[in-house]
Amino acid sequence: MAFSACSIQGLGSVKKPSIAPKFQLPKISPCETVKPLMKKLEHLPLKTHVSEILKGASQRVLNAFVDSVFQFVDQPTTESQSNFAPVEEIGKEIRISSIEVVIAEDFPEGIYIRNGPNSLYGALQSSVSVFGKSSHIWVEGEGMLHALYFNKDSEGKRVLSYKNKYVESETFKIEKERGKRTFLPAIEGDSSAIWAAYLLNQA
């Protein structure tokens, strides 16, 4: 029995393997790439807002703790310290009409500036708490610049004027915004009270 070559070739053509298709990366449109990023950016302001709320809440809790635990009391002052008592900020230059000293004729014209303590809320105060007592000293707290101007008018007569202004430090701005004494004295007093004041002032 004979087989035809043609039939064998025909059978082989049916079994011929197909060529594998080329692999292609999926196409990603720009929108699909940007959308996840936009979603993250949309949540960013919310997270920032929540962070600010939590920070404000923790600050209010801390202030409430200080107000309930610590009590401010005026410190006694001696007669020699009365010259360093707090004065109000005038904000503008005023002319001095009378003086109690004699100024030398050859005293040069110019400005004399003194930088000293000047409590924003009255006299220096101590803080009393369960931790003990701590007291303000003269180099602690708010400061003020006092300027004394030595000039002469057109007739050559001596003219004196005065101006003062608070040093607007970060602690000064915070206490002025809150409208009350906020920072605790942390230099002189009981060691436990000083440590507590130092830690709370840094919070």
Key attributes of the depicted protein:
203 residues; alpha+beta; 2 domains; four-stranded antiparallel β-sheet; 4 helices; 22% strand; elongated; Carotenoid_Oase
Description:
By secondary structure, the protein is α+β, with helices and mostly antiparallel strands. The chain has helices at 5-14, 30-69, 170-178, 191-202, and strands at 71-74, 94-95, 110-117, 125-129, 132-135, 143-152, 158-166, 188-189. It is elongated, with a radius of gyration of 40 Å.
The residue-averaged pLDDT reads: 78
Order of strands across the widest beta sheet?
Answer: 1-4-5-8
- The tally of domains stands at 2
Structural class: alpha+beta
What's the total helix number?
4
Shape: elongated
User: Radius of gyration over alpha carbons?
Assistant: 40 Å
Biggest pleated sheet? 4 strands, antiparallel
Helical content class: 25-40%
Strand elements, count: 8
- Low-confidence parts: 1-18
Question: Strand-and-helix sequence, N→C?
Answer: HHEEEEEEEHEH
| N- and C-termini, Cα separation | 105 Å
**Strand residue content:** 15-25%
Can you lay out the helices and strands and say which pair or pack?
Blueprint: H1 5-14, H2 30-69, E1 71-74, E2 94-95, E3 110-117, E4 125-129, E5 132-135, E6 143-152, E7 158-166, H3 170-178, E8 188-189, H4 191-202
Antiparallel strand pairs: 1-4, 2-7, 3-6, 4-5, 5-8, 6-7
In short:
The strands form 2 sheets. Strands 1-4-5-8 form a 4-stranded antiparallel sheet. A 4-stranded antiparallel sheet has the order 2-7-6-3, with no helix packed on it. β4 (125-129) and β5 (132-135) form a beta hairpin. It has helices spanning 5-14, 30-69, 170-178, 191-202; strands at 71-74, 94-95, 110-117, 125-129, 132-135, 143-152, 158-166, 188-189.
